Please model this.
Amino acid sequence: DWMNGDVENGQYFDHVASWYSRKDDPDVLFVRFEDLKRDALDVILQISNFLGTEFLSPEHIQNVTELTSFEKMRQADEQDFGLRFMRWLGVIRRTHV
Model:
């Protein structure tokens, strides 16, 4: 259970807290799941600006937004044979995305 720290990176809140001290570093960008759910396009633009890819056209940004949507990730997750096999083995949980 991830709340008890029985995961790869230890307890979730310890993991987040370990990065929080770097929140103002110029080479760190915090991206929150809630923000992605609320306005994915805005967050993708923030990431693009952070990475210095301002030259991307609106069409490129829209394409990134569509290809990284939760629905597209769910579809890719369902079609990934490696993930299906790992679930069958019980190594990872049944639903990943």
User: Anything to note?
Assistant: Helices lie at 12-20, 33-38, 40-51, 58-67, 70-79, 81-89.
